[in-house]
Amino acid sequence: MCETCGCDDQAKSRLIEWHDVHDDSHGHPHQHDHTHTVTLQTRVLAKNDDLADANRRWLAERHIVALNLMSSPGSGKTTLLERTLDELGSTLAIAVIEGDQETTLDAERIRATGARVVQVNTGAGCHLDAPMVGAGLRTLQPPSESLVFIENVGNLVCPALFDLGETAKVVVISVTEGADKPLKYPHMFRSADLVLINKVDLLPYVDFDVTACVKAALTINPDLDAIQISATEGTGMNDWYAWLRRRRS
Amino acid sequence: MHELSIAAAVVEQITTRLPGTPVSLVRLRIGTLSGVVPSAVEFCFSLAAAGTTLEGAVLEIEQVPARCRCSACDREFQPHDQILLCECGSARVTILAGADLQIASVDTAPCRSEETAVEEHV
């Protein structure tokens, strides 16, 4: 093994600190015999990002607003959508792409409201990606000027990394979770445009400090909007609808 | 664990760019703010590479440290963790480095016929 840089043909992986200038002064040839180095300098997620851009163009051409809803499991995303569809569905065309690892249970709940819905089952996957959403859009064929909700797989980590081509990202957090979630999952909150604090009807029964949660979220992302709602009781839903109208205007 | 998707994307990108070319080494640049854990990518890489022209390839990961500029006081700083807070108290910052998730380069494997020739010579 090269003592200076640690390179070793036997090793399957190495972890090295990044230096702006690599020191080759130890005289060890990095161009080993019979190998050829090909510089790629390409983004790992280039294919996903290209397809996300295609989704964005597809949506923009049709003046469709698509919102990526993300949260941990059980925060109330599907209940939020059910109420939103019940209250806005008669005046606004809304379609839904449902993402779950398995089952069509959530899609069945959405279909019961009369809305157009397609279920994406990711199997082992922990997030939706741009090709899945592209296929969902082509299947749904939402009309021009409509609103599309993309309910991502319940997970506060992985979905933050994958651009879907959405218009905006909405994170839902419920008061039965910890108020420190934004600090624990900074990638998710840094990438978001809005945080909905759901289940505020349960605040009298749980130890959840809304002010501390909002402060933590703004520490991660000073441009984040925050709205308190109860999707079951209807609290704050008008503020959510006003936010939706602003995104569509 | 999204690192399996990341490892699969690495393999797909390289096999698309260099179809049919055996690869012996892959150099990735992973920023500390990329949301990707290098050890988890390492764990998944051999799985994603199995049965492809990257099977058995060494994975070399350069970790790119984070660097930010504060929009309030214009100071450049290196954050100590994932919470990008300037000493002045502002969270309004621009990420200058550390969001990288890039395939820097690959080494193609030695030509099979050359290997055979060497063995015969020995």
Question: Percent helix among the residues of chain B?
Answer: 25-40%
From the 3D coordinates, which CATH architecture of chain A would you assign?
A: 3-Layer(aba) Sandwich
Write out the CATH superfamily name of chain A: P-loop containing nucleotide triphosphate hydrolases
Globally, the shape of chain B reads: elongated
Write up what this structure looks like.
The complex is a heterodimer of chains A (249) and B (122). Chain A is an alpha/beta fold and 249 residues long. Chain A contains eight helices and nine strands. Chain A has helices at 46-61, 77-88, 105-111, 130-140, 181-184, 186-191, 210-220, 237-248; strands at 13-17, 36-43, 65-71, 94-100, 116-121, 147-151, 168-174, 194-198, 225-228. A seven-stranded parallel sheet of chain A has the order 5-4-6-3-7-8-9, sandwiched between helices. In chain A, helix 1 (46-61) runs parallel beside helix 4 (130-140). The N and C termini of chain A lie far apart (62 Å). Residues 1-32 of chain A have low confidence and may be disordered. With 122 residues, chain B is α+β, with helices and mostly antiparallel strands. Chain B has one domain: hypothetical protein PF0899 fold, CATH 3.30.2320. Helix content of chain B is 30%, strand content 29%. Chain B is built from three helices and six strands; from the N terminus they run H-E-H-E-E-E-E-E-H. In chain B, helix 1 crosses helix 2. At the A-B interface, strand 1, strand 2, helix 1, helix 6 and helix 7 of A face helix 1, strand 1, helix 2, strand 2 and strand 6 of B. Strand 2 (36-43) of chain A pairs antiparallel with strand 6 (101-108) of chain B.
